[in-house]
Design goal:
The chain has 391 residues and is of the alpha/beta class. It contains 16 helices and twelve strands. The chain has helices at residues 6-16, 27-37, 40-47, 54-61, 112-123, 137-141, 157-170, 188-192, 205-208, 211-215, 225-238, 248-255, 268-276, 298-309, 324-332, 342-373; strands spanning 66-68, 86-88, 91-93, 97-99, 126-129, 147-151, 175-178, 260-265, 281-284, 314-317, 337-340, 387-389. It is globular. It starts with 5 loop residues before the first helix and ends with a strand.
Length: 391
């Protein structure tokens, strides 16, 4: 599917027969609906951010500091004149979007990651599978189209290598190392429920299915409740990794020939260091505000990081994208593609596959429209001249 703007015509055509969309038409509307229908624990896990949630708010308000300066009379208002496709890290995408790695999707739907892989395959965009998934690497690899694997590098290097090698065998096209999570941030919404899903055996499917991890357990976790508790304890002992350094990316290069991205970069010096160590891409991100409360908005970091590494590596962006115009601004500031998170997760919890598809089509159609109305026929035409800082 590449005619993303057709979604608008589809909705208006349905209106001729008295049909109106069953699902909300904005990211904010999806969040509001999700809060109404989801289990409070599940909603808190997806919606929550670190501490006072200032960084999550800053991610959104950062977009208000930019204004788009549309160009006219360029013949791009006709949807057929536009090509949204891009190539990022050797992956061809129908639009510069991948679903961000969101863990523990079983809180929202029992087949969450498989559904997301299937929908993104249909739409021609990418998906990034979390290490903290509720479906295994192999289950997602059997369904998804163009997908990348996000690595939470455990403190056990043998296990980290096993994850990476499993992902490559299953068809992943890139490895995304999240570097901003040596441990989980302080998240009051989860703390208020005293609920960390991993301690309930959720979101650890890739560990429980891994031969290296299982070989270190006293008994298979399926055998008994006590064996599962032991497996959860083993997960807790290896998840955090405070020792990771840029040089470790060079070791990762020895394990795989897939492109490597470092996700969670905000400082230009860190960007240069990971590229020097062998990263093919940097994802400018503050984890959607879930790690360091009060940190810089991801969008404010983007231009500086882009300038710091030039054309030595691709730059991607996440944290705060909610509309097509948000996408356009991030791309104009130098991102090659964006990762999109919470809204489709809300859609998953509200309506399963239909909810994910709806949320992603909202973003894609909005971007398609904004791109053409700004006078551009492709993402390659977006540059800094199309945005100005707001007065």
């Amino acid at each position: 599917m590449t005619g993303f703007f057709d979604f608008q015509n589809e909705i208006y055509q349905g209106g001729l027969d008295g049909s109106v969309p069953e699902l909300p038409m904005t990211a904010a509307g999806l969040e509001q609906r999700a809060q109404q229908v989801l289990d409070p624990v599940a909603f808190a896990y997806v919606a929550g951010s670190a501490s006072s949630e200032r960084t999550a708010a800053a991610n959104r308000s950062a977009f208000d500091r930019y204004r788009i300066v549309p160009r006219m009379l360029r013949g791009t208002s006709w949807p057929g004149a536009r090509d949204l496709s891009v190539e990022v890290l050797g992956t061809r995408l129908a639009a510069p979007v991948l679903t961000a790695p969101v863990g523990v999707l079983e809180l929202l739907h029992e087949a969450g990651e498989v559904i997301v892989g299937d929908v993104t395959k249909e739409l021609g965009i990418g998906t990034v599978l979390s290490t903290a998934a509720s479906s295994t690497i192999e289950e997602v690899g059997a369904t998804a189209g163009d997908w990348w694997y996000q690595l939470y590098w455990p403190s056990d290097d043998e296990l980290a290598r096993s994850f990476v090698e499993r992902a490559q065998r299953a068809g992943a096209k890139a490895i995304v190392v999240t570097v901003d999570t040596p441990n989980l941030g302080w998240r009051p919404r989860d703390l208020a429920h005293a609920h960390l899903p991993f301690l309930h055996g959720k979101g650890i499917a890739n560990y429980l299915s891994d031969p290296v991890f299982r070989a270190k357990l006293p008994a298979p976790p399926e055998e008994s409740e006590a064996a599962m508790r032991a497996a959860i304890g083993a997960w807790a002992s290896v998840f955090s990794n405070h020792a990771l350094r840029p040089a470790d990316l060079a070791r990762l290069r020895e394990w795989t020939d897939l492109p490597i991205a470092a996700k969670g970069i905000l400082h230009p010096d860190d960007a240069r260091q990971v590229v020097d160590a062998g990263a093919d891409a940097v994802v400018v991100s503050n984890h959607g505000g879930r790690q360091v409360d009060g940190s810089i908005a991801a969008l404010d970091a983007l231009p500086v990081v882009v300038a710091s590494i030039g054309d030595r590596a691709d730059v991607l962006f996440d944290s705060g994208i909610r509309t097509g115009s948000d996408m356009l601004i991030a791309l104009a500031l130098g991102a090659k593609a964006v990762l999109y998170g919470r809204p489709w997760a809300y859609g998953l919890g509200i309506a399963g596959r239909a909810g994910v598809r709806h949320a992603l089509r909202l973003l894609l159609a909005d971007f398609d429209s904004a791109l053409g109305l700004s006078g551009c026929a492709s993402p390659a035409e977006l540059d800094r001249s199309l945005v100005v800082t707001a007065r």
